[in-house]
Amino acid sequence: MMDIIKLQGKENQSFFKELKKRTTVDFKDYEKPVEEILEAVKTQGDAGLLEYTQRFDGIDLKERGLRVREEEFDEAYNLVEEDFIQALRRAIDNIRSYHERQRQNSWFTTSEGIFLGQKVTPIARVGIYVPGGTAAYPSSVLMNTIPAQVAGVKGIVMVTPPDREGKVSPGVLVAAKELGVKEVYRVGGAQAVAALAFGTESIKRVDKIVGPGNIYVATAKRAVYGYVDIDMIAGPSEVLVIADETANPKFVAADLLSQAEHDEMASALLITTSEKLGMEVREELIRQTQQLERRDIIEKSLRNYGKIMVVEDLKIGVALANEIAPEHLELCVEKPFELLDAVENAGAIFLGHYTPEPLGDYFAGPNHVLPTSGTAKFYSPLSVEDFIKKSSVIYYSQEALRQVKEDVMTLAAEEGLTAHKNSIKVRYEDDDK
Amino acid sequence: MMDIIKLQGKENQSFFKELKKRTTVDFKDYEKPVEEILEAVKTQGDAGLLEYTQRFDGIDLKERGLRVREEEFDEAYNLVEEDFIQALRRAIDNIRSYHERQRQNSWFTTSEGIFLGQKVTPIARVGIYVPGGTAAYPSSVLMNTIPAQVAGVKGIVMVTPPDREGKVSPGVLVAAKELGVKEVYRVGGAQAVAALAFGTESIKRVDKIVGPGNIYVATAKRAVYGYVDIDMIAGPSEVLVIADETANPKFVAADLLSQAEHDEMASALLITTSEKLGMEVREELIRQTQQLERRDIIEKSLRNYGKIMVVEDLKIGVALANEIAPEHLELCVEKPFELLDAVENAGAIFLGHYTPEPLGDYFAGPNHVLPTSGTAKFYSPLSVEDFIKKSSVIYYSQEALRQVKEDVMTLAAEEGLTAHKNSIKVRYEDDDK
Predict the structure, then answer these.
(1) What are the average pLDDT values for consecutive 10-residue runs of chain B, which has 433 residues?
(2) Which BP terms from GO are recorded (chains A, B) (predicted)?
(3) Which H/E stretch holds residue B126?
(4) Domain A3-24+235-365 belongs to what topology?
(5) Residue of B299, B408, B429, B431 to mutate, interface with A, max A Cβ within 10 Å
(6) Cβ-nearest to B351 among A344, A375, A394
(7) Which site from A130, A377, A420, B431 is most exposed, i.e. has the minimal number of CB atoms within 10 Å?
(8) What CATH number labels A28-230?
(9) How many CB atoms lie within 10 A of CB B385?
(10) ipTM of the complex as predicted
(11) Which helix (H) or strand (E) holds B87?
(12) What would be the CATH architecture of the domain defined by B3-24+237-365?
């Protein structure tokens, strides 16, 4: 179970280094087989896709076809609970409403003879990878699709691996249908990434690929990066809870466990000003873990990457959080809004005693695709921003350019670029006559 | 000199493929020596930096020191023209004023018992790489530093290689000083990137590294990516001019040449509805090239990556431009604003006959760090956005969470994550009693 330590100085640096090292996945072992798959799909198109689907997913899709048919979406609705559909719809409303606030407009500014602006255009076509099997998460469909839709992306295509009967997770299909995504292909793995990046007879190539996947998918995304854009390659998940003596140990333990159950590399950390709370949380962790289905994963995760740290005051706690830059940060303290300003590095910040992290995973509205393993120092949650791009716009009138021509020529000359200078000069050669 | 071709169908696809291939730099040959340099600086700190600076830049900095001293900035002012300083100041005003419009604010929204928001925080510390020698461009200092300053980045540090006497380009120092950047180190190459990424006794590590550099610098940036963030690795530069019969062939030729002089891989393309203009531009290219200093580079660039394409109407021209997604797009037509809406993919768009691309390189205000080689389909110009990151913020009251608890638990259960479900459940266990 988790250590409890009292932090004085820098004594825990080695643990923090271990935490960061979790991301250093070695892609090298996977590069060669992935390269082969990419090349096969690039050159053979659908034939390559079908071949690798047969080999890896154990299903021949020649009969059934790559694209999910209309009636399969309808069937999916019969395979899920009505409660789930209703909950999903309310989640969609919340997520859409939050992301709509991220929308950016083109803008311009003018002064005499000058027009400057920034034109916002959605990316034309985006591919969303949705894992299959036990990792087929409808919430992942929502979180990757909705920002693209709000951004105005017209072409949204989804790929997800088939089971041995060629079927696709009903939860995923229902989520896709609720969002109005109609183009879904039952392919997964590196072969699906190849189809999205290069295109095949059935699947038109995209400009950007997003969504989580296993090591083959991640390696393939890295390999096609440059041909197309990709989202960040997510590392293992983590939560950091900062708690004072007002926190409820039962709640804190439950939140730490909800992170630890993700996988053995997940990290759950508690920083508290109350040693008493730290000890109570530890007891609760032991008690609650016994009742949880994914207890084996949880025990390994807590043992290797869990830690309870006791600090003197909340200020030190927040400073430490900024150093760790966690994916999820919970402020389980009496006055969480008073700490908010000091938080600099965190993917998502959960305030107070009734804002557990899973609320954000599914329902509240903000995106659950967040920077992991300390990258919150420079990355942001997935957002509408990731599905648009901008063009600068410049217009100068003849007279406006005349006013500044000497300056531009001086700067070009200083850099030794005479053709740059010349492009201004030719426009006013007649002035001097 | 450049070909003139009449476009009918898809006949030019192979040329466009060649254009895109320009970016496929093979970093592999450089990875091993760069890895060695990174490791040496990581383990030896300043000693490693000094050693590699001696080896590659031919200067022992033990006496002179790594950091540029106050009096060196003053000396630099004596080595540049007063005209240059004045032009630089006016450029800074324009660039700052444009980028200030990109600033984003934190926002929040509330409803009963719920507070959702997005907190914007500048990246804490940024390193700017400025090349030395003939590629020491003061404009590059402005374009990389100003957006970071407008974003609110507190720690801005600059590195730039020394000459054989240990001195740094005066234009670069003047630009740094005008912007108030005080922390400048005379180191370059992969060793400078290593110092920024890992830190040494003299140079504190940064969170993000931006700025152009040679193949060693680019390879080093790729290698440290993940420890720190980096900007995009820029490919060769390109301009696409769309011109109708109102365009002046002298102006168009001069603009194409200003792009071609960058390097042999640079691409200058003209799409025109007027075959007559195409032929006149071709004549002008030949005439003007003779008068230019960088004629050797220009001739190679035009021969390999230059092309004049005649199309039937402007609509076809813009569609082709969207496919090419050029770094710079000039609309040298009678009514450029009427074409603007149809432009989807371009780094920067220059409208009309008096907005040559070099105006944007130096002076107008928008950033000159732009997506190259077709990546404008998914990337944007360097902006304030690149120097901030966002955190989602969520607060739910006890009552607000109670209202939605069933939905969250239903969604968690559907995904088989029972500890997620449990984190909601524990908060309301007493409700049921």
Answers:
(1) 69 68 70 94 96 95 94 96 97 98 96 97 98 87 98 98 94 97 97 97 97 91 88 86 98 96 91 96 95 90 92 95 96 98 97 97 96 93 98 97 96 90 92 65
(2) L-histidine biosynthetic process
(3) strand B125-129
(4) Rossmann fold (3.40.50)
(5) B408
(6) A394
(7) B431
(8) 3.40.50.1980
(9) 20
(10) 0.94
(11) helix B82-100
(12) 3-Layer(aba) Sandwich (3.40)
